[in-house]
TrEMBL record:
Cofactor note as given: Binds 1 zinc ion per subunit.
Organism encoding this protein: Candidatus Cryptobacteroides excrementavium
SUPFAM superfamilies for this protein: RmlC-like cupins
Pfam families (alphabetical): MPI_cupin_dom, PMI_typeI_cat
Catalytic residue list: R197
Keywords associated with the record: Isomerase, Metal-binding, Zinc
GO biological process annotation, one example: carbohydrate metabolic process
Phosphomannose isomerase type I catalytic domain span: 7-112
Cofactors required: Zn(2+)
Mannose-6-phosphate isomerase cupin domain location: 243-322
PANTHER family for this protein: FRUCTOKINASE, TRANSCRIPTIONAL REPRESSOR MPRA
Single Gene Ontology MF annotation: mannose-6-phosphate isomerase activity
InterPro entries to which the protein is assigned, alphabetical: Carb_Metab_Reg_Kinase/Isom (IPR051804), Man6P_isomerase_Firm_short (IPR014628), MPI_cupin_dom (IPR049071), PMI_typeI_cat (IPR046457), RmlC-like_jellyroll (IPR014710), RmlC_Cupin_sf (IPR011051)
Organism phylogeny: Bacteria, Pseudomonadati, Bacteroidota, Bacteroidia, Bacteroidales
Name of the protein in question: Phosphohexomutase
Length: 324
């Protein structure tokens, strides 16, 4: 099997901007594109292979055919035909709603066995004034949370961060958050589309009606603990792996290369996702299969691959993610 590319699934959102199409070098007549789902196993939104002999097959069909050799033996045993991660680019022209996601236990109980949603954000680009909110800066009770939603003061108790490219935020299930205007973000998350919308700034949806809020559902999902810091800090080094997040759901790293680099995957019982956030180069697997990797593209490296050689054309920046 060879490195796989997929057709992006574009989502129009009331808060969406105009950056995704030029960033990914694609043409589209859609407006307000807020999200590009790069690799998805979400039912009804399953990614379709775009290259090679398997073009036209969904990710679920590929997993059904290749099982552990595509996603890793342990992943196949745990998640079956459902690909375990969802990869997105998000372009926020306006603030997204304030929201929270349930953990695995709550999601399974409420949503017919569904997974929860732990995620992370890597800030790819920003406009002046770009910001986001993540976590509580003041302890509140569940009842105070409801009161603040109703009297429009919920933002007063959330940490608000000014953004720069390269900023990273890890968001375990239960953490209140909102991507702010001017943010262009790569998101890596569990395969789940369960979102509890807490507050939407009084805005109307694309249909001209207020969007549904899930105030009561969110009440039991929120982690009300105040943490000392919600931003992920890391030291960036060129031409080597920079681990950003290492949790039970995914391990994500950043690479910034201006010379040839080989990723040794022999000990990894997992697929490897490569998300290009800048520059371009070629990716050659241990079988000699070569694919280009350009800014805005995502490639899935099968678990059977023993190594990947990346040759930058000038320079290349990409994220990798896998599931242990």
């Amino acid at each position: 099997m060879y490195p796989l590319k997929f057709r992006p699934i574009l989502k129009s959102m009331v808060w969406g901007g105009e950056k995704i199409a030029p960033f990914k070098s694609i043409s589209t007549d859609q407006h307000n594109i807020g999200e590009s789902w790069e690799l998805s196993g979400v039912k009804g939104n399953e990614s379709v292979v775009a290259n090679g002999e398997y073009a036209g097959k969904t990710i679920s069909e590929m997993i059904r055919e290749f099982k552990g050799s595509l996603i890793g033996k342990s992943n196949w045993e745990k998640t079956g035909e459902e690909f375990p991660l969802l990869i997105k680019f998000i372009d926020a022209k306006q603030d997204l709603s304030i929201q929270v996601h349930p953990d695995d236990e709550l999601a399974a109980r409420r949503h017919n066995g569904s997974k929860g949603k732990t995620e992370m954000w890597y800030v790819v680009d920003t406009d002046p004034g770009a910001h986001l909110m993540a976590g509580l800066k003041k302890a509140i009770t569940p009842d105070e949370y409801v009161e603040r939603v109703n009297n429009n003061t919920i933002t007063d108790v959330l940490e608000d961060f000014s953004l720069q490219p390269g900023d990273v935020f890890f968001l375990p299930a239960g953490r209140i958050h909102s991507i702010g205007s001017g943010s262009f973000i790569a998101e890596i998350q569990q395969t789940s589309d369960i979102t509890y919308r807490i507050y939407d700034f009084g805005r109307l949806g694309l249909d001209g009606k207020p969007r549904e809020l899930h105030t009561e559902l969110a009440k039991d999902a929120i982690d009300y603990k105040v943490y000392p810091d919600y931003k992920t800090h890391y030291t960036k080094s060129k031409d080597k792996e920079n681990v950003l997040v290492d949790c039970k759901y995914f391990t994500t790293s950043l690479y910034e290369l201006d010379k040839e680099y080989t990723l040794d995957l022999k000990a990894l019982d997992s697929f490897l996702i490569m998300i290009c956030i800048g520059g371009e180069g070629t990716v050659t697997d241990s079988e000699g299969n070569t694919e280009t990797l350009r800014k805005g593209e995502t490639i899935l490296i099968p678990a059977s691959t023993e190594s990947v050689k990346v040759v930058p054309e000038g320079n290349i920046q990409f994220l990798t993610s896998y599931v242990k």
